[in-house]
Amino acid sequence: MNTPKVPTIFSPQRRAARLARARRRRTQPGAARFLADDMIEDTRERLGFLRHEPVRALVLGDWTGELAESLRLAGTAVEAPETFDLEAPFASGDYDLIVVFGLLDAINDLPGALIHLRSALAPGGLVMAHFVGGQSLPALRAAMLAAEPERPAARIHPLVDPRAAPALLQRAGWKDPVVDTHSLQVRYSALDRLVADLRDQGLGNALAKPAAPLGKPALARARAAFAARAEADGKTSETFEIVTLTGRRSLAGT
Length: 254
Hints:
The protein is an alpha/beta fold. The chain has one domain (about 10-250): Vaccinia Virus protein VP39 (Rossmann fold), CATH 3.40.50. The chain is about 35% helix and about 20% strand. It has a 6-stranded mixed β-sheet, sandwiched between helices.
């Protein structure tokens, strides 16, 4: 029986490059980090609520380095590699905590990645994954459609619909799976600032076959469409949906 081939939608190289760019830009004055701050604070609150005190943890995608540092200060042995392939089996299988920031939105084989995360846990271990979900960036999407009304190119990659997540977690064998969402509203005076914030936070385009850059007329249309959505103070509201997946490996290690 042949295993169905997973379509290549995202580029691992571009995925790694956008995260490396976020690390480089984090020290620049005014660099955006509100999504990372939200995910870090959420992780801390959940660990406190669950009273989960990990001995060995793996932190992936936190380009700020802050979560790994705070866990180390609490006595946890932490691995936080700058590059990691979520679509391949993990070398180790005895982490009692794995936290993933922002990487699952650009994975070709998402069910496989969820299986690898569960398999890398020690029995009873906890996995927590945050990423930007499918209801995000409506203003940016509308601006891109206005830029190329006749033949819109794929400029924003597809995002995960959280309604599909519970079935994916069950399929991957996660125990006690929970899917939570919340939204952040951020207001912008210009489209260019929104794009800069996305790049600051490792959310650039990771498509395997990205479209050519917008030409000057198309870019002008995009900027105008974004500005047309502005409120009385001249700022346009943009939405970021944050999806959080939590689950465990069973005490039996299955």
